[in-house]
Amino acid sequence: MELPKFLLADSSKNPDDIFVLHTEFPRFIINLKDDEIEFLEDVSAEDEDDLAHEISALIEQSGEFYDQEMAEFE
Question: What share of the chain is helix, strand, coil (3-state, %, to 5)?
């Protein structure tokens, strides 16, 4: 199975949170409510520094993905 690059997720326990999952390296979940990121694999501080520009772009893409998905519902 080929996963999409981004997936939406929610939780009934946190109804105000909006989660986007990034399924490619570096895999992470971002809560768009507060931009908190949880990496789903071991990303060392050294790797994080090397990936800083890429991660920044992925965070922006996460928000764009969410906006596009919400536009589909309207």
Answer: 40, 20, 40
